[in-house]
Amino acid sequence: MSGLAKQKKAGLLSIGFVLTQFSFSPVFAEQRPFNLGSIATAEQVAGWDIDVRPDGLGAPIGAGNAIDGEAVYTDRCASCHGDFGEAVDNWPALVGGEGTLASHDPVKTTGSYWPYASTMYDYIYRAMPFGEAQSLTYNETYQIVAYLLNMNDIIDDDYELNNKNIGKIEMPNHAGFLIPDPRPDAQSISGDPCMNDCNVPTQIIGKARDIDVTPENES
Amino acid sequence: MTKKHDQSLSLSRRSLLGGATALGAASVLNSASAGEVNPDNLPPNVPEWTPYLGEGVDANPYGLPSEFESHVVRRNVEWLTASAESSVNFTPLHELDGIVTPNGLCFERHHGGVPEVNPTDFRLMINGLVDRQLIFTLDDLRRFPQTNRFYFLECAANGGMEWRGAQLNGCQYTFGMVHNVQYTGVRLSDICREVGVKPSAKWVLAEGGDSAGMTRSIPIEKILDDCMVAYAMNGEALRPEQGYPARLVVPGWEGNMWVKWLRRLEFGDMPYMAREETSKYTDLMKDGNARMFTWVMDAKSVVTSPCPEKAINNRGVQLLKGIAWSGRGKIKRVDVSLDAGRNWQTAELHGPVLEKSLARFTMPFEWNGEEMLIQSRAIDETGYIQPTIQALQAERGVNSIYHNNAIATWMVNKDGSVDNVRLG
């Protein structure tokens, strides 16, 4: 675990830390070597550039609070994710799970796990409702994100979430991520591995057959 | 098809049954496979397919495998996911030889189904910190200088069900989220020169045109090193489920980053922290913290025969087959143990052994009805040794889902059937 202890916690500061891991060799401006493609207009870019960064860059102008979000969420999201984000059937839960990450059964939700509120805006606008991508308005998206943040006890129900503060919401698990990647790890041996009479566990402690969750396929 | 052929087909299907019935199925196969044989087709008789003309050309304008191979298909585990549009199926590794995965058998992982992208309307937009924001058509991409490379693509969640114990009784279900094809396409470094990347650009957001709008942040060094935009696999256009008409290729790194149905690359000065690199594809450790940006796929190997789907049917000499791969470079060596890892032999590694590509190994062995515990262990050119599950668990716990590259154990039972087991 010492390798882990040495790692930095992720956050805007340590993103800079990641970058120093690489020696950067820029591809400087030169004449277009191939003259392929056409110039993208500002309007074309605006239509497709829908991502929202952790610092809020890219967040479209708009606003919404949880009180207004409840109705939109109930209408567009609750059939799969549950009225309170608790999930219906096998669909993902969006609320709850605080304090479970180190337990036997971690519950990863926007509230317990996600490090940035910007990711909620970005993902919900681009991909939800499932099968109706990019159908929400900007205001509806802010309202729904505000509703989920409120359900997760992160903001009050009348807090106005907007493009200026979406990059400033402090998420509970913000510091829960470790970079850079400490692998290769789990290398107990250096040099050539044991070839003969190795001291390894050889008792059978489990069989997939006994768990019996393997599909029985007919083609 | 004759009745006898039908029989043999259903028997081979039955041999694929996993779980609690594997043992029964294997013994059925052993006893019944003799009955399958039609002596009329055996020497000295003239087999039934010889006297008559067969099908002419164009019976299948796009050729298909023999109908006797219809059990060789991708399979999914329905209870794993809530919908087929956000789901995964698995490559039948145990049915394949060599290092090339046939296009129709490459496992699928979609987050919003397979979009039907019309190639005429396909556009790739490059925006952000570049001198010229450009839009490319498919024809533009095909006019760039070309590169042709074999690479494996492995989902970071391959084997994710096995962290706590042996769960799924099949090589296909426990290792089948990997495939290996030859990609044809454009080097990202050439596209970078065309748009003129600004020195402040340190990350690239790759975005798909599917209904999940799949997005991942990739450091610029990797983009310039060996990434490509591929439009062909194994010599033909990408299959729809593999990103037709163009996908990103991120050699040696987790499959989720190989964005399919690629529509946009944005150059920026920090990572975008998309859902797929925060909520997903982060590896939860014992203490509740999660590793982020764990991109490389560490060295791994698996014995593809015998395995739970490939029972041993006859005593005597056997050919053990397997595959090995590493996201850090070439496979250097694969060792095989028949006694639970106590003693090892080095298997024969078959060429070509390419960087960040599957490598094939085989090893002959004798089986005479005894129990065996079979393992394989890959070592790559960096000296990295495929770890045991105990070593991984000690380091990371059991909740990480992703990046399980542990050695698996197949137990050969006395009747020749094979089980996925966990040792401890």
Keywords:
heterodimer; A: Cytochrome Bc1 Complex, Chain D, domain 2; 29% helix; extended; B: 424 residues; alpha+beta; Sulfite Oxidase, Chain A, domain 2; Immunoglobulin-like; 5-stranded antiparallel sheet; 24 strands; globular
Explained architecture:
The complex is a heterodimer of chains A (219) and B (424). Chain A is mainly α and 219 residues long. Among the domains of chain A are: 3-39; 63-177, Cytochrome c-like domain (Cytochrome Bc1 Complex, Chain D, domain 2), CATH 1.10.760. In chain A, 29% of the residues lie in helices and 7% in strands. A two-stranded antiparallel ribbon of chain A has the order 1-5. Chain A has a two-stranded antiparallel sheet with strand order 3-4. In chain A, helix 4 crosses helix 7 and helix 6 (117-127) packs across helix 7 (138-151). Among the domains of chain B are: 103-272, Oxidoreductase, molybdopterin-binding domain (Sulfite Oxidase, Chain A, domain 2); 300-421, Immunoglobulin-like (Sandwich), CATH 2.60.40. In chain B, a hairpin with a 5-residue loop joins strand 4 (124-128) and strand 5 (134-136). In chain B, helix 1 packs antiparallel against helix 2. Chain B has helices at residues 3-14, 22-36, 138-143, 171-175, 188-195, 220-226, 389-396; strands at 75-76, 87-90, 109-110, 124-128, 134-136, 147-154, 178-187, 203-208, 215-219, 228-233, 236-237, 247-249, 262-268, 283-284, 290-291, 300-305, 316-325, 331-337, 345-346, 348-350, 359-367, 372-380, 409-412, 418-423. In chain B, the strands form six sheets. In chain B, strands 5-4-13-8-9 form a five-stranded mixed β-sheet. The N and C termini of chain B lie far apart (49 Å). Chains A and B meet through helix 2, strand 2, helix 3, helix 6 and strand 5 of A and strand 1, strand 4, strand 5, helix 5 and helix 6 of B. Strand 5 (177-179) of chain A pairs parallel with strand 15 of chain B.
